[in-house]
Queue: 4 jobs
Job 1
Amino acid sequence: MPPITLLLVRGSYRLASPRSGTDRITQIDSRTPLPNLVDSFKRKHDYLRISLTERCNLRCFYCMPNEGVQLSPAEHILTDDEVLRLAALFVRSGVTKIRLTGGEPTVRKGLGTLIKRLDSLRSLGLTSIAMTSNGLALHRRLPELIESGLTHLNLSLDTLDPFKFEVMTRRLGHDAVLKSLDVALSSGGLQSVKLNVVVVKGLNDSEVLDFVELTRNRDLSVRFIEFMPFSGNKWDRNKVLPSAELLALIRERHPAIEQVQTVPSDTARLWKVPGHKGGVGFISSMSDQFCLSCNRLRITADGKIKEISLRDEMRRGADDGKLLEIVRSAVWGSLLCTRSNLRGIRPQYLSSLLYPLPLSAGPQLRNIQRSVLLLGSAIAAIRASHSVATRLASNCVQRQSSTRSATDEPQLTHIDATGQPSMVDVSSKEVTQRSATAVGHIYIPKIAYNLILGMDSQLAHHPQPSHERAWAKSLSKGPVLTVAQLAAIMGCKRTPELIPLCHPLPLSNISVTLAPEAAPQDGRMQHPDHWLPFRIRCTATVTSEGKTGVEMEALTAVSIGLLTVWDMLKAIAGKDMIIGNIMVSHKSGGRSGSFVREEGK
């Protein structure tokens, strides 16, 4: 097969014959590097995952419901030429690693040819082509794929027991996967071979040490993945085995196991048993978070990135300049959206909240999205100020240590002896039922109070003439209290990102209420020009089974809820509103016991 040449013609990449005679300058332009893909959190994205198909030849219970999933029509899936065009655009923009995924990528026809075409992008900066596969139909084809340019392989195998394999995947084929693993390890052409193991408590956790044993004489990285919730997989948090517990189990057998240094963008924390040829890793998708260092982008099989269809743009004739503009906009708007933070919210609803909405989207959904995006901005600000906070903390500790002894007063638990921020170690604490309730108020003028009361009545349509325009603008945003309630719940789930040293916790329940009321005579807030006689009371109760309390989660929920109210009402009351009296009113569980605090005290 002749070499593939990519030409930039009128702003678009096209495949050209080596005999086309295209101008040399055009060929040089097609290879010119583009600026890297960087998001608003300053993360450089140099790793692209491309889904080649939605189809799979297994039916793993944790990945797919019994009834299967509805597949897109064949014509909706990216063609090879479209995959190559997008890949070239991303590589020119700094992507150095491409991973092919599915579904199951080996069920796509012409896989070897596509890998060979992708391999031609090495001259543009691509350094590796990886693939994640279940290995069911791979062992005979793997040598060809390696010859075509495949450099890294991840195989999925959750059990070494053939019978249990059939239970977990609802299919036969355990021997075929083991054959693929043997071929991969003996090929000599792959730079790395990894084995992904989803651990489910009570099902395959008894095999963890057997998987570790595979690394004794094999250059293999076994990675244990926490059981995650997906739509329809009947996820149960009691089936999750945290990585910390897995490591403790392995350490009982191999006390000398040691951690291996990794790059910040790695999703797995790597460990190695001395004397073993391979190693083990932990992907703590539920008990830990790694979004702050994420460098991955994903294109779905039907050509979407962040819910934006690049396929549709290409088929409408968009040139590469237009495509790149869309990609950069999508990447810049990336949120720290982890599976653990947004647990329990339907994926189809999340896609509407976190990514650009269609013009037909209603005002309520748009304002919920606005609140979520404000959270993202807050996270970016926290990260930007981290070094300043560290210096201030260090100076504070130095001043304290120079003026008094360590036993004079209680010490800050989140700062170590050197003045550096430090997360409190809760490993020795017991898991207990915990709850916390926080309250707060936003004080508002009468016009804002009337608008909220009249959202569902005729009063909302008869404001004073001087307020008609601002009134209409506030109404167009949707129901104030509903939007604020949803924003508060979502903000509560993201507390560990907003407050850097908070522990990520499995929240059992979040209850948020917002109620407009007339402020009591002694509870009115003094504005510089007048008294504010009305207020909205926000109450948030959070429960969890964990090793530390949920007061911060409750306070975050109240704060975000009240900030959202302010944002929704600012068109008519932006100069008059005051937020105040945010506090924890009730707390139960933990070593410090329970308390109830009356408001105003």
Note: The chain is about 35% helix and 20% strand.
Job 2
Amino acid sequence: MMEVKLSFPGDNPPLSVIATAKLAGIPISVDSSLASGSLPTFLISSSDNEYMCDELRDILRLKLRGTSLNTLLRCLGRVASIPDLYGQDAFESCQIDEWLEYAPTFSIGSEFENACSYVDGILLKRTFLVGYSLSIADIAIWSGLAGSGQRWESLRKSKKYQNLVRWFNSIFAEYNTVLNEVTGTYVVKRGLGKPVPAKMKEKEQQGSNNGDANEKGRASSKATAEVDLPDAEVGNVRLRFAPEPSGYLHIGHSKAALMNQYFAQRYQGQLIVRFDDTNPAKESNEFVENLLKDIETLGIKYDTVTYTSDYFPQLMEMAENLIRSGKAYVDDTPREQMQKERMDGIESKCRNNSPEKNMELWKEMIAGSERGLMCCLRGKLDMQDPNKSLRDPVYYRCNPLPHHRIGSKYKLYPTYDFACPFVDAKEGITHALRSSEYHDRNAQYHRIQEDMGVKKVHIYEFSRLNLVYTLLSKRKLLWFVQNGKVDGWDDPRFPTVQGIVRRGLKVDALIQFILEQGASKNLNLMEWDKLWTINKKIIDPVCPRHTAVIEEKRVLVTLADGPEKPFVRIIPRHKKYEGAGQKSTTFTKRIWIDYADAVSISENEEITLMDWGNAIIKEIRKDQDGIVTELMGVLHIEGSVKTTKLKLTWLPETSELVNLSLMEFDYLITKKKLDEGEDFLDALNPCTKREIAAVGDSNMRNLKRGEIVQLERKGYYRCDVPFTRPSKPVVLFAIPDGRQQK
């Protein structure tokens, strides 16, 4: 087994080498501690000399510097698990060498756009720079673009270098797991960033203090990397993502998870996934399992999984210590009265009970007795504080329901407000990332830690992700599930990770969307259109093209000079992406077209039949109600497609067509944002799903569940139910493309 140890300055990582090693499946360890300006070095070792090329064996255990990085790229290409990464013959290898020498041009500021223009021209009719598969030439140029950060991202959004952008996006989509990891760690781009010491923050933070107030209504353009965690030290940061297992992960949780991972990677720290399982009435093992599944889907890399319930004995002990020291008391005030007293700053009649009296009632709570069930444990903080979260919050409540992990051992459970600061401290969390909706509770969090006598944990706030026409409350989402308004937590109308992925969202698009917002504390109401636009840019360059005709009133076209005997041609599933494969298209004398297309045609009009050629419609036949029922025409293959107004999709009249069910979805509620106190039940959308019957080309019987396709002239779809038998339709979910819904 060959191993590579790479050392480089943190501000100048050799992306192409790191990406190639990871794509090649070669273990690589990195050290980004070299001083700024130092040349990269690498050390190669192998336990299998027969596996190595001669050039690599010659440099075994030698440190190579500077331009010798191309030597390493060549050798990595030779031993890679990906075939022909350094070309399939000597001629291709020479071409690749030329590209390796050219790649540094992208690091020369004045030459950057000239280089983009040159490569864009090369890629006009090419999928890869050399040959017909990925090579280290592609990786070197791709890394040069990605490493330029925001400069390339600005050009990538424009239409200036369309061939270059298509090529860049297709490689990123094909190898997204590896490339996203590399760019997410080493590139300051779209909120992704390289590891940097906290001491370097002065330069990074220029202007970031007032960045949150920029341009109302837009996501902050500040990259996440421009914000630092307070008092963070590289190698000494420990974070936690702590979902409650009372539902599936939704898009709002995704932001918290990705923010935690970003900072953990940036500071070379640790990330814990902790389940905040303190409410047995809402939680279940189903939710735990699916949360872990969703975390994996997002590509979150964590060090360990813990549960707040692991700390129940210590939490009980801490509660009793606070009771004995007069910092907590048992209260039997009815809940509604307690809430009113807290609002009005009125002390409970139980507040000044002796520790002995409180311990007596505490034991009743532990036993779950009738008397104990009337009580709760409250912290003795400050009933006059203007911040109402400090007005003696509840620490423990009785709940006789069994816990999903530990059964009926306990009859009382800690609140989140009490358990979170304790467990954070016990697990050595250095920074607790919380959305700004918890801002008023930050003082409570630190006051409770102070009373407990545990180490203070830094709190870092970021804005909650809010989306138009969307409910993110798990209580409200649960209502839709329990009342049969959706088909489950993975329903494509739901904002859960499983729901939006099932609808056709690529995880890379979600990650990019969230990280583009950075760590801003601005409260923004985001449009879904932006997310789906990002998604389209990822799927369009690579998803196969197919054809469908709407079943209702579909119209038969008879071509008088069409083929008497059907024939088949093999054509690409995507004209600009060879990786999509090929499909067979049958050409027949009679073909089907959509009714909407049929009614837009005039007699003697020349039209273009896509992937075939032109035809002239000689006659339009209608029934007694004026409904178009059939068209008669002749082929005009030599005609120019530039002269026709209508370019139509069509299907042959054969028994091989596949029945389709095209599913379209709408928002669950009719208001962009509910007003304060407004009941979501008053804003329910009465029609959120529409099914359209269609027929598709015969190749669609090979679609797999989860595969994304474009139905030409109709849009993008994800296959939810693949072909099993002719009588059962293939179910395709419509994927929004970012254009405003009508």
Note: The longest strand covers residues 613-622.
Job 3
Amino acid sequence: MLSLNCEQVGNVRKNLFLAYKTLGVVFGGLVTSPLYVYPSMNLSSPTEGDYLGIYSIMFWTLTLIGVVKYVGIALNADDHGEGGTFAMYSLLCRHADIGILPSKRVYSVEEPLLHDQSTIARRPSKLGKFFERSITARRVLLFMAILGMCMLIGDGILTPAISVLSAIDGLRGPFPSVSRPVVEALSAAILIGLFLLQKYGTSKVSFLFSPIMAAWTFTTPIIGIYSIVRYYPGIFKAISPHYIVLFFLRNKRQGWQLLGGTVLCITGAEAMFADLGHFSKKAIQIAFLSSIYPSLVLTYAGQTAYLINNANDFGDGFYKFVPRPVYWPMFVIATLAAIVASQSLISATFSVIKQSVVLDYFPRVKVVHTSQQKEGEVYSPEVNYILMVLCVGVILGFGGGKEIGNAFGVVVIMVMLITTIMLTLVMIIIWRTPLYLVGMYAVPFVIIEGSYISAVFTKILEGGWLPFAVSMILALIMFVWYYGRQRKTEYEMVNKVTLERLGELLAMPEVQRVPGLCFFYSNIQDGLTPILGHYIKNMSSLHTVTIFVTLRYLLVSKVDERERILVKRLGPDGVYQCTIQYGYADNLSLKGGDDLVAQVTRCLQRHIETSTDRQSPISTEEEVGNLKAARLAGVVHVRGKMRFYVGDDAGCFDKVMLLLYEFLHGICRSALPALGMPLQQRVEIGMLYKV
């Protein structure tokens, strides 16, 4: 009993410590939203009733979306600890055959990694069967997952811009002579410095993130309480929903349009779910319910209490309500908190891009792991500099926080509606929740988030076009990449080389077995790539030991180390198959090509020595000796590079999609450097596929 109590105490301490750390990583965007919510609203001669209605809307938005939806429901829809729209998509794919790419289909029943799924969970529901039968429904589901990821990247562009700009804008209060261009230039300089530091990782400074955000989280509600007591002690009567009804009856169309500003109070809530893989569910729930939620409720109450007595100060709704004696300390804390919030979204963007690359839904970009201890801490140079240009462009192009806020609202609520829809599918297909309970969740949240979307859509021409443009470009890139990969996979499956055909090729008198160890990379597991036949016919040779390697990306977050490398013997002597398995949250980079060779040959030798089903005519000792001799003779890594030749007789859709795919394929990185292959050992074999 004593040991059990000690273990429980230890778990509580661990969760409390993790909850403290989430302040600096997960909640940066959400808890800094008071900097720009009121300044983003286009108010016109607001009254006391207007402010009470606005506060009531914000209170219930935080309560329903933050507490009920995310903390109470969404955090339970994790995929082996990972969260976000892609995690929900992979979760759905694992419980029903609704994946798109054949090479990305889930190996559900026989998959050893998924042995813990119940028999009931494997049998698809009626809705799951509908998705399995309808390719259109599966494409729409994939598009939603893609759009959710694209919108999160849009969040990564806008959060740094609006947070830092709103914080630095505090200089204009004490120093009215400081012009708007100066504030913009300072904000841009801070962000450029932040992006240039990304390549060094955040490990060295991340220990400062949580104290900074804790200082912000616990000081703003103190000022809020002071403001409530001084300006409007009865502010909490606005919790009554009837103030929302009165607000809309009084303001009608303008009140509906103001929803586009109030929605910003929940910015960053999606990070609770998206960053689930870095922390535990319990830690995120503790942090939100014990600190973030009370902090925001009290801070917005204090701001509203001040504005009721100073109705026209909403343009600088945060700094105006800060008492003069603590103005400069709060300015420093606000600036540091805005930088930390920016870092949180930048890191989340890197993480999402990495997951998409691993799942092969995005062109390959360089992904660098900047920490040996933290596997999720990654950096992508190409993504980093594109983000930097876009963030600085947003600040210099839009200028004011109100204009950026117009763009920001579109991103925030679109991601939340996508989460609501996918969470509803998870409830029906996986959890088998009774339909009346699903309706009690889905209907209210679709109405609430649909109302917000209808309001923010009116701001498309006032800045909302930017995240849509970025998201649509990203979605186009992802869909073109998906379509090209699908066509390539279909061709490989139809024209794959069977073991019988391989035996015939090797039996040809002109084909020689040359000394050495060859790693031949293929995209398919069932059969051998058609490039192999092309290679043997043109080279008239094959190495004495040839290992066909497939990188198998599973729709799970992480693969157990014991299941990472799977090997088996194929028919002809010296020919083997190796499958290297990864989840979307795994580290793709092995430590150097020699390390890959050592790991695979070690697994292969163990397989040869322990195999009971021997098909080789030679002894175990001789087979192991051949493997060692081949490695000493030299190692070569062969990768096929199949390109599309789009003929004049191809359809218009194919011409456009495949030419775009060829362009993307030409500029993206090779898959081999990600595994650390030495340049002098790499060989690429080209092959044209006529469409």
Note: Residues 135-168 form the longest helix (34 residues).
Job 4
Amino acid sequence: MPSRSRGRRASPPAPVQEDEDGPEEEDGSEGGGSDSSSSEESTDVEDGERSDEEGQSEGESEDEEEEGESVAEGCGPSVPARVPGGAAAAAAAADRATNAPNCPVCMEPWTSEGAHRISCIPCGHVYGRSCLERWLMQRGNISATCPQCARRFKHKDIINLYAPEVVVLNSDLEKQLSSCREKVESLAEVVLKQGKLLEEIIAKKNQRSTDVGVAKRQKIAEHSDGRTYLEPSALDRADHSSSNSCCFVLKNDLFFDGARVMGIDAANQIILASRKAPGIFGEHVLTKINMSSNHEARIIQLPPDTKVVKDICILPGGSALYASLGKRLSLLSMTTESVVLQCYLPAPAWSCSAHDSASHHIYAGLQNGMLLVFDTRQTSRPLHSMAGLSSHLVHTLHSVTDSSGSRKVISASAIGPCMWDVDGNQSKPKLLLGEDNQRVCFSLACSPPSSDLLVASFRPKSDLSGDVAPSQAYLSQTPIPSGSGKLGYHTVITRTGSASFAQGSTCYSNVSEVRMCKSSIIPYGNGQHLFAFGDEALCGVRTWELPLFGMPTALPTHREPIFDLRYAESPAGDGYLGCLSDQKLQVFRVSR
């Protein structure tokens, strides 16, 4: 009998009719309070009473009867009517509860504390506590049904949940987000690769345009002066790693800021470079780099007032000769890293050279066009002081041996390459080529100790008069792209006798308008040679096969003009080509 009275207490009380127009009903969060709803609840009560009677007849306890009543109420046919607005409203509420961390009754976010704190009921559904309490109040403060599953609960069944934040995870969205991130990373890699490829294409296109322009100018020059010039084209360029049997393997690639001149000691695997120390009043120093270890670099302080070092010559036995604008020709010990000899000069020195250690002779090319010869055993005064053919500075010196075995010095100044008799028997040097007032010689490549093959580099003078030859006028007046220098040319000079030379093939390229850049001749194979030069348009090094300037090859670009270029061989025959720009130093091992 107590169970029957409990079943009757579950019927809806009168306050339900009074609150049927409340805001909760308008939102579709509770029952409509109609007669049909009351009748359905009455039916549930009758079902509950029948369940109680069946439970008593079987001898069940009073608690078991109450539980059976609750289960019956949650599964009876009146479940759809308990959700306001019918099945559609129940489905919408369930969907909102699943996909958003909001109370499914008021659709407002629940809180971790306060009246609307997150709470749940025995069926497991989660609501704001104030919404559950208001729902119970409307149902008589005794019991009510869950708005989602219609299972009955009481006020004491409301459980507070202690959670600072509730986030409903959507695995599908997480997968989509992860997939999007992967796609973004993949696209970023593609964009980076495409950007590099575009840069390479633009560089090749610009180079092709430059080469085509050079070829056209060469053809015009050929028709103008009757001479034949080879036309190195981008289409004929081979890969930089090989040129017939000669290939270049990058051995050192270093960041080297502010250097202008370098020397290579191939026997001891040492690079010596000159630059200015950091700071406004920084002195000029030498940097000694071990080619076997890029990280091993030592700074060598130079004597005060040395000023800019313009040339470095590596001598046998582990010493280096350098010429500076401080009017000094100095000898540096690579072992002790100190200056062991200084020769004071009447004018700034721009170049230096020396024969093998047995001769004890060292040479300095001065800014006033003079050549001075010193003996390292007696440096108080020069052994010979020789005047040049002009007052133009001597920017290049090579110590060579002629066909008879006599020691000579090959020099270059603006007027062209000259040969000096350093024994003092000749008062003036001999000009190897005829005079040409419309050109300036700015570089001379040689392969010491032999002087059988030379390459002189020229650029046209900027102040040409109107009566110059058509070819020379064309070379100087043809517009050159900005930053690509100007059109110059390289000429092969070959020995034809003990003291006679002849001009050979000529090749045009883009050269610096102001700098006196270095160039090199690289021997390889059976008496074959390559000519290496820093091309202004390429911002890198080109090589040609001599003596016809065939098979032009481009080494990896520096993206900056080349300041110095040196070739050196070790006693074992290993060759090294050093390339120096404003911020990079590269050394290639030349395999032959």
Note: The chain has ten helices and 34 strands.
